[in-house]
């Protein structure tokens, strides 16, 4: 992937917890990885997690983190109470909706919309039915790319809307 990105002229940079990224209208903060976790899937638990503000739309992008990294992430997010108190508009569900999740993290986000990026008929059975049920139980509207196709989220904090390709 890195070689293909570089061949296409796309810059590739490693990021770590605490890094900040910005483009016109977009601010992102890296929350994970903060350290190596040897439990669970080491590559998944090393996944990049970002909070992103796009012209007032607040997103939490959870990469592929599993239960172990998610618990550490929640502890980190709680160091800034205003971040969780204000809530997010959208959560990109970790690891394609795997059952290996931290429900407390999802509940703490107060987001109305959960997006599951997942291929149709994947060999892993993602998203796990228990994950979808838990998200809906926490008040999320759950959209899945295997059912809705491409999903575009529009609006700003508190004024959320979306469109899908299906």
TrEMBL record:
It comes from Lapillicoccus jejuensis. InterPro entries: Competence_DNA_uptake, RibonucZ/Hydroxyglut_hydro. PANTHER family: DNA INTERNALIZATION/COMPETENCE PROTEIN COMEC/REC2, RECOMBINATION PROTEIN 2. Gene3D superfamilies: Ribonuclease Z/Hydroxyacylglutathione hydrolase-like. Signal peptide: none annotated. This is Competence protein ComEC. It comes from the Bacteria.
